[in-house]
Amino acid sequence: MNRVNSKTGASTRQLIRITMLSAISFLLMAYQIPLPFIAPSFIQMDVSDLPIVVGSFAMGPVAGILISALKNILHIVIKGTTTGGVGELSNFIIGSVFAFTAGFVYSRNKSFKSAFLGLFLGSLAMTGVSIISNYYFIFPLYSKLMPMDAIIEAGSIVTSKITDLWSMMMYSILPFNLIKGFSVSALAMLIYKRVSPILKG
Fold first, then answer.
1. Cα distance between residue 198 and residue 63, in whole Å
2. Contact at 8 Å (CB) between 142 and 168?
């Protein structure tokens, strides 16, 4: 009986931590930074993946996916969506890949070196998936709300090298996600050891 209660208590504590990190991630999502030298105005950077990565390190890669999902659900329910849910779906896909990769690598050997490697590989994985998902799925879906010609034109304002969807991926989406991934990674390396005792109870 005590063992059952202990498992239930641990599950409850983990659920509370996931909910707490999701709420923090949702709040961070409200503070977006434009990168006009890389991306058009409808693509802005935030550090809302930071609590997701921290949660993935502390509770495992599946927890990171759950935090990413709950963050985007909260955003749609509370703030609404200006992209018909397409932006939130993309955010979930990319954030989940980042957190899962980083958390999985870290879980194999919990050390500073492993954390660094996990975040580095997570940033690369996130960038690679962002190119594939945006090119084949997200941008074509978003073009139902904003014509593809208008999307490409917005990109060409940033750089004349953007002339079609693929060049948008190469000259905007790729550097944008690398900057985002490495920025979140740097913050995660700075704060994780400070907050991990709280998350691990």
1. 16
2. no
CA of residue 112 relative to chain centroid, distance: 21
Average pLDDT over residues 128-147: 94
Cα dist. 128→27, 95, 105, 155, 161 in Å?
26, 12, 17, 19, 20
Q: Supply the pLDDT for residue 121.
A: 97
The Cα–Cα gap between 50 and 24 comes to 9
Longest CA pairwise span in the chain (Å) = 67
* 151 — pLDDT class (breaks 50, 70, 90): very high
CA atoms within 13 A of residue 30's CA, in its CB half-sphere = 10
Rounded to a whole number of angstroms, the CA Rg of the chain reads 18
Alpha-carbon span 43 to 36, nearest angstrom:
9
| pTM, full prediction | 0.88
CA distance linking residue 55 with residue 159, whole number of Å:
37
Length, in residues, of the chain? 201
Contact 61, 99 (CB under 8 A): yes
- Summarize pLDDT for 92-133 with one digit per residue, the tens: 999 999 999 999 999 998 888 999 999 999 999 999 999 999
Domains, the chain, ranges and CATH? Answer: 12-30+42-200 (1.10.1760.20)
